[in-house]
Amino acid sequence: MKVLGIDGGGTSLKATVAQENKVIRRTILNQGVNLSAVDPKQLEQTIKELFEWSGDVDLVRAAFSGAGSEQRKSLLREIMAKYFHNSSLQIFTDAEGVLYSCYENEPVVVTIAGTGSVVMGVDNLQMVHRAGGWGHLFDDEGGAFSVVCKIIKAALNYRDGIGEFDPIFDELIHFYKVSHIEDLVDLQRLKNFKEVIASFASHMKITPLVLRILEEDLQILLERTKRILYKTNARKLYIHGGMFKISQFQHIFAKNLSHVEILRLKHDVDHMLAINKSLLNLKIHM
Question: pLDDT tens digit string along 250-263?
Fold first, then answer.
């Protein structure tokens, strides 16, 4: 059986074709395919280009950012079926893609903390469990957008005279190339404001304020992780996302979960979706 594994994100699409669990070819298209942002015509052109590269396959396992909405998932399925009409289609979110890529015929949990955050797991009955990932307006604690928004809010409180100064405020002004703290409010007017705001997290210094915010957000992310670990009875936990590249963040997270094996996600999701034999036995929820 020939399988096409796809990992579609906001800046690129990665794809692997495998036959009998052996990789035939792999490509990276430098075109964003986040379903909540990409134009349908651009999306179709990307899928057409992908099909011309891969040719017919028996099964497509496609993980796309923004595929959490049934409407957007239906649009992608319609476009995919237009070109991959001889293929079985499995379409799911990017977080589900990470989870399925880690599945090895036993319970497993993944905690993702990138721009946003979500925890997902599979139990021994192959049921998928989830906590968080409800969007930037309602949660995503532990994600870069949540953390940086709280830092900016603290800076604005300082500007209003109702909060204390922290050195991170000067870093904000320098990073975003603004003259005054109040100029930071213009970030919310940008079309890609989530990504722009979240981008500060990878550059910020760990000041007393930043550490306090990290600890507050981590408490919620940890509670969600513990809940999914309990529901799945998993003993293996994968972590993924830019926030885990911050040493203090990962240290606080790990020391509260000493009873499980914590692993960094090192494989490419598209690669594992194409070759992972365990997925043949998993009842994937599409």
Answer: 999 999 999 999 99
